[in-house]
Amino acid sequence: MSSEIEVGFERLSTRHDRSAFVCEQSSLTDYLLKFAGQNERSDIAACFVAIAPNTARVLGYYTISAHAVLESELLPEQKKGLPAHDRIPAFLIGRLARDITMKGKGLGELLLIDAMARLCSIEAAARMIIVDPIDGNAGAFYARYGFTPLGQATARLYLPMKVARKAVGAMRSGSAS
Ligand SMILES: CC(C)(COP(=O)(O)OP(=O)(O)OC[C@H]1O[C@@H](n2cnc3c(N)ncnc32)[C@H](O)[C@@H]1OP(=O)(O)O)[C@@H](O)C(=O)NCCC(=O)NCCS
User: What is the CATH number that goes with domain 8-176?
Assistant: First the structure.
């Protein structure tokens, strides 16, 4: 989807107006309103918000955290080439949602691309990006971008960091041309 909307991404701060934010999942609406700031302050999850230029109103958000996957969670083919380690380093996109007024305008995609690009720019090793879709619709959304089930746990999806880097690189060279 090539989005017509113009948004910037910023780390959540007190300058942002979250009060009107509503998405289809009440737990994800509540998280932004009640818990995102607290989780920022306690270094549990970094929250990034999408805002329209020259405004403070939050139109969407995502959170990212360092994470680890147990080696035993992976299928044999997902362990290929990995040295024996109990825990595999990963990044987690813990939450991602856009305001209901922005439905179908490409903001979900912009949020996911910004999260992936940000994770690819971190100078720390991680094998994969993990997401835990809240329901089947969210799972179908992530699947469009190459996320596939991790191990036997059908709910949890992952994207190898190598694939994410390629996708981000392709998007950057596409937007530069
Ligand atoms: C999932 C969510 C982020 C999608 O955001 P959106 O802004 O409506 O989606 P976009 O307009 O960016 O769509 C991007 C592409 O994904 C597709 N898409 C969107 N929702 C989809 C879904 N549920 N299943 C499959 N594809 C989906 C769109 O058709 C579009 O594809 P196209 O390029 O071929 O047109 C949004 O529905 C949302 O915030 N839901 C509530 C919270 C939630 O479920 N978050 C998921 C994380 S747990």
Answer: 3.40.630.30
